[in-house]
Amino acid sequence: MAKLQRGESECELEKGVRVSVEMSDSSEDEGPEEVAFEESRSAALKSEEEKLQAAKREKELLKEKRRKRQQFFQEQKKKRLLSDTLLEEFDTVPQKQKKLSDDRDEEKDNKQQKLTKSKKKKASRSLQGNCSVMRLKDESADSSMQQSAMDFIQARLYGSGTLRTTNAELLSLEKKRGVKKGAAVQFVNKKWGAEQKAKAEKSNKRFIHRQKLVTT
Amino acid sequence: MGEFKVHRVRFFDYMPSAIRALAFQPQREKIAVARTSGSVEIFNCADRFFQEKIIPGREQAATEALAWVGDRLFSAGLNGVISEYDLENQKVKYTIDAFGGPMWTIASNQQGTHLAVGCEDGTVKLFEVCEGKIQFEKNLAKQKGRILSLSWHPSGSRIVAGMMDMIRVFNTETGQSVHRLLVERGIGASRSVECVVWGVVYLSDGTIISGDSSGKVKIWDDLTGTLIKSHQVTKWDVLALSVSQDETSVVAGTSEGTVVQFQFLSVVLGQEDKEWVQTRIFKNHTHDVRAVLELGTAVVSGGMDTQFVVRPLLDKIEERGPECVLRKIQFPHRSLVSCAKKAGLLLFQYPGHLELWRLGESDGHGASGSVLPVKRKPEKLLHLKIKGEEHICCSAVSPCGEWIAYSTVASFRLYRLHCDNNNVSITKVSKLPKVLSSANQICFSSDSSKLFAASTCSSVHVVSLSQTVHKFVCTLKPKSGETLLTTAVHLLAASEDGKWLASANSDREVQIYNLTKMKLHSTVPVYNSGVTAMAIHPTTNNLFMVHADQQVFEYSIEEKKYTDWSRQVQRNGLHYLWLARDTPVTNVTFNPKNPTHIILHDAYMFCIIDQTLPLPDSSSQFYNQLTLRSLPEKDRTKHSHAFKMCKTFKELMFVELMEDQSLVAVERPLVEIAAQLPAPVRQKKFAT
Hints:
- The complex is a heterodimer of chains A (216) and B (688).
- Chain A has 3 domains: 7-81; 82-113; 172-216.
- Chain A has helices at residues 2-19, 26-29, 37-80, 84-98, 104-127, 141-158, 167-177, 185-188, 194-211.
- Chain A has 216 residues and is mainly alpha-helical.
- The radius of gyration of chain B is 27 Å and the shape is globular.
- The chains are: A mainly alpha (216), B mainly beta (688).
- The interface between A and B is medium-sized, with 27 and 32 residues.
């Protein structure tokens, strides 16, 4: 339709050009072109149809995408779960022990199944090789968490970075600043500072020995 | 009065455990105290802070917080378990696992319908409090970081949680976090360490007050989620916060042992606009303060130095009375030492084991106050470790020294001791009557033929002891028919002739049983203060009771009424210095050679009451022993009165008179306890 329009307008333009060679201004003064109602209606309908078709195509594309994703997830799920054959095997394993007197065919089948089962069992064992079995009573995860919580509080209150001193120093300072002045607790009470006293004695003995103050 | 040889015993290495949490129940004015050993103690604020109940702890216990819901007490600990306590029978009723890992805090809402628990994994779990149990309701939004403190808004619609480096406000209906308040870290070296919000408090007008490890108390507004004011209170951590009932006063406990008070006051007098201002600092502790309570009329604090300190706020108290006294409760209000009088043995009760010692001997004589030479040193005969994780609830040794019994919450054990001169052997009695599963108090009869064990519902089981078979004789029940008493017995006293048994329970009821008929004989009229010590006189069979408010009563068992001496004491009134003592009497004993003498002691004195002498009136000198000694003999009778006080021995845990007329005084110097406490903070003081 556009071509027709253009074609018409070209003709008109040519006409206009031929006619109005002398009159160049009059092409701008011309009124709008008259387009037939039928043509414009068909043009509008066509554009609408195209739009609908485009929307449909998009929807279908999305649907396809979704379908593919769904399939992919299902396959992933199936991979995670044990295969159906294995599940059957777990069902039949306890029953296998009950069926002692069977027909030969069944025995054969069982043997075949056993072989396949044993293969699968081995396969299943190797899959879960990293796990070990423990009783809940013996080892509780709680105790490790409790220990880490207690370590946290110990570190925050008494760990590095906290400025802490000893009880001996606290009591000695109280005695020094008290109303009745006294010596530090290490010197007053025999139990305090036993290690330091032992060290001091040892170093005294060493000094005396080195300086040979005591004649042997 | 007489001279006594005194065995001054200092080898009882009693070590209390640190206070970890405090909780106040306003309806009955009780304070629950949780210690690091897992034990929970109930103090009665109205009755001179008497320690009414003790629920023993266990090994590997790590109780972190306590909460009251009405009359029920719950605790949460690092073992990931919420426990409810049976306060009547003094044990744990049940435990429920919250499945959130170690729990740091527990808080109940004001309506008493829900409990919130803060866990290590970052969740706040809400439990609904039902009849007889609690049920998990929901988790609030899970956070990254542990929840260390919780506080409900009084309306119950919001909860504020203190975590690492931040504070979160949750809406309890939706469970989502409404605000995130960021707490800034300390200056200098502490900038690299996370700031821990140790305590939060939510006020009804929307103000949130928090105390953190950088030593700051911060005041936030929850409508806008912004900081209003920050107060640097200390260089170390602020470990605990508590707000008073009327929300005008907040106290904060710090690592350096101070308790700082903030009050909601107007800065300029007369103006209406109020703000939170730091007012007072109380320094009553030497080590970290891990729990505080603002009671309105007093500030209660407890921490790593194991003392329970009550500091009254005198501007809130109207009358002068026993509440105006600063109390430091160091020793338990029960006796941990029992004594075999005839054999000269002492049994020390520790949480996880028992020790039996034989007292030393000395021949010499000396003047009053001198130290006698020791001929034979005291020796430790037995160290009995208990099996299992529970701590010992009560223990006793028979007067002849042949039987030792102890009880935990789950088990009861009886041992037979054979003591030759150098060989000590002990055999466990295996076949005990099944009724004896656990006991709250144990007592032996004076001839060691019967064992009395107090168990549930204030009843007492009587078991006869012999060489071979131990027969269960009967159960003494407090009231036949009518109403059953439910609380546990905490004191038992047997008479010397074996006819009477008295029991006192924590509901202040004292029952006397007739042992020949095995029936209830009479009930002593109820007094509004708890009994701290009682004993039956060997000859007159009068029951002598001392109460927590320092009142003294003597009740004649055979006549079923108070004695004349007791009525005279009540008419006269006790001396004000006797009533002003702040530690309760924990043991009463008698002197067989002087039937009018009564020997009793508390933590800082021991006293002999002579019933023949006149009672002191308020004008006479109460502590008159030294003045009497300086007077000549004839003048002494004019000035002496019935109460003979001796303050030579301090920090007494037990005083008893042995059969050979020698006194045993078990002391525990506070310096020895202080030596084993954890490290305090280093404070630089001027000129040291």
